[in-house]
Amino acid sequence: MDILEVILLIVGIVIFIGSFLLPAGRSDAGRIDTDAAKQEIHGLIEEEMKTVRAQVQDKVEETSEDVVEKAERSLERLTNEKIMAVNEYSDTVLQEIHKNHEEAMFLYDMLNNKHANIKDTVSKVDKAVKAAEDKVKAIDDTPTVKTEETEKVIPADEPAKTEEAVSPEIGFMGETAEEGQNNNEKILEMHRQGKSTVAIARELGLGVGEVKLVIDLYKA
C-alpha cells in the first residue's frame, strides 16, 4: 500500500465521521461542543497517522532487509567466485612447483648416475693403465737381459746371425719363423707410418713388449 493511498483512506475516514457529526451538531447545537469534536477528529487522525507511520516503517525495514539480503547474497557469490579463482590459481601454482621439483630431482638423479659411471670408468681405466704399465715393465725387463746375453754370445763380426737370433725370440711366444718374420715386417712398416707401440700391438694382437723389442732391434 502506497503512502498516497493511506492518506486518501484517512481523508475518507475523516469525511465519513464528519458526515455523522455535522447533522447532529445542527440539531443539537447546544449539547455538542465543537472543540470536543475537533479533538476527537484530531485524535482519530493521530491514530491513523501512527498506523501509517508504523506501516511505512515496516515497509522501509522490509525493503532494507531485502536490500541487505540481496547485497549479502551478491557479496557471498562474489566472495565464493574469488575464493574459487584463488584456489584454482593456487592449484596451478602447486602443480607447476611439483612438476619443476620432479624435473629437478630427475636431473639430479641423472647427474648422480653420470657421476657414478664416470668414476667407475675412470677407476677401470686407471686399473687397466696400471696393469698395462706393469706388463710393459715386466716385458721390458725380460728382453733387456736376453738382448745383453745375445750380444755377449754373438761375435761382432757376424751381424747376419743377429737376425737369426731374433727369430727364435719371437718364435718362443708361439709363432713360427715365417709368422714372426711377417709380424716383424708389419711392425716395422706400421712404426714407419708413425703408429705407437700400443696401437701396433693392438692391431696385430701382439704384446707391447714384443713390438717394442722388434722396434729396438731394428733401431740398433
From TrEMBL:
Residues 61-88 form a coiled coil. The keyword Coiled coil applies. Keywords: Coiled coil, Membrane, Transmembrane, Transmembrane helix. InterPro entries: DUF6115. The chain crosses the membrane at residues 6-24. It comes from the Bacteria. This is Uncharacterized protein. Pfam families: DUF6115.
